[in-house]
């Protein structure tokens, strides 16, 4: 078994403290630090603008703005059982970052040219997968199903061998 050595690190990375949060998506990426206020209101009925969850959240954001947090965000997790307490908080600070730059600075990132894709096979195919999603969404409205996890594979063949770093 091979292990990574410190020399492999292209750019030093910070370790997140317990009161930090890391979020990265194709649309927005940020890190947070500090905890201004915890928020445990159950999310049941959270889609109702005048419901308890939304009202409590609005009050928490107003409290954060009054304390000088210019653009408060709320991070954490909402349990699948929305009657259970949420695990959310408003951080004291947050900072956006560039997802592509973060990926380029990752431990195994290397300046490589894009690989030529020879074949791409979806398992299941897009239409079949969308039908599965539609059926799963309908089933969650029944008492028999609480949670659904769907995934699919995309088998990609490239002209050159992929160096996985392993």
Give me some keywords for this one.
alpha+beta; 2 domains; three-stranded antiparallel beta sheet
Written description of the protein model:
This protein is an alpha+beta fold. It has 2 domains: 18-104, no CATH class; 117-158, no CATH class. The chain contains 3 helices and 8 strands, in the order E-E-E-H-E-E-E-H-E-H-E. It has helices spanning 52-66, 99-104, 126-139; strands at 21-24, 29-33, 37-39, 75-77, 87-90, 93-96, 117-123, 153-158. The strands form 3 sheets. The chain has a 3-stranded antiparallel sheet, with no helix packed on it. A 3-stranded antiparallel sheet has the order 3-5-4, covered by helices on one side. Strands 7-8 form a two-stranded antiparallel sheet. The longest helix has 15 residues, at 52-66. 5% of the residues are buried. Mean pLDDT is 84; it is low at 1-12.
Helix and strand topology:
Blueprint: E1 21-24, E2 29-33, E3 37-39, H1 52-66, E4 75-77, E5 87-90, E6 93-96, H2 99-104, E7 117-123, H3 126-139, E8 153-158
Antiparallel strand pairs: 1-2, 2-6, 3-5, 4-5, 7-8
Major sheet strand order: 1-2-6
If you average the pLDDT, what whole number results? 84
Cα radius of gyration in angstroms:
21 Å
Total number of domains: 2
How far is it from the N-terminal to the C-terminal residue, by CA?
Answer: 9 Å
Number of helices: 3
The gross shape turns out to be: flat
Report helical residue fraction: 10-25%
Sequence of secondary-structure elements = EEEHEEEHEHE
Low-pLDDT parts are 1-12
The main β sheet shows up as:
3 strands, antiparallel
Q: Into which percentage range does the β-strand content fall?
A: 15-25%
**SS elements, strand count:** 8
Query: By helix and strand content, what is the structural category?
Result: alpha+beta
Organism: Klebsiella pneumoniae
GO molecular function, one term: isochorismate synthase activity
EC number: 5.4.4.2
Protein name: Isochorismate synthase
């Amino acid at each position: 078994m091979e292990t990574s050595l410190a020399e492999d690190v292209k750019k030093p990375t910070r370790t997140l403290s317990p009161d930090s949060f890391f979020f990265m998506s194709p649309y927005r990426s940020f890190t947070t630090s500090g905890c201004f206020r915890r928020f445990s209101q159950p999310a049941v009925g959270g889609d109702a603008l005048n419901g308890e969850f939304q009202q409590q959240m609005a009050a928490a954001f107003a409290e954060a703005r009054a304390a000088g947090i210019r653009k408060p965000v709320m991070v954490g997790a909402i349990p699948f059982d929305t009657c259970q307490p949420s695990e959310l908080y408003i951080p004291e600070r947050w900072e956006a970052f560039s997802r592509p730059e973060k990926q380029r600075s990752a431990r195994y990132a290397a300046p490589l040219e894009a690989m030529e894709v020879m074949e791409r096979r979806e398992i299941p195919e897009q239409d079949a997968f969308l039908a599965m999603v539609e059926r799963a969404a309908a089933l969650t409205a029944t008492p028999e199903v609480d949670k659904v996890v769907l995934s699919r594979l995309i088998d990609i063949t490239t002209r050159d061998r992929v160096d996985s770093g392993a």
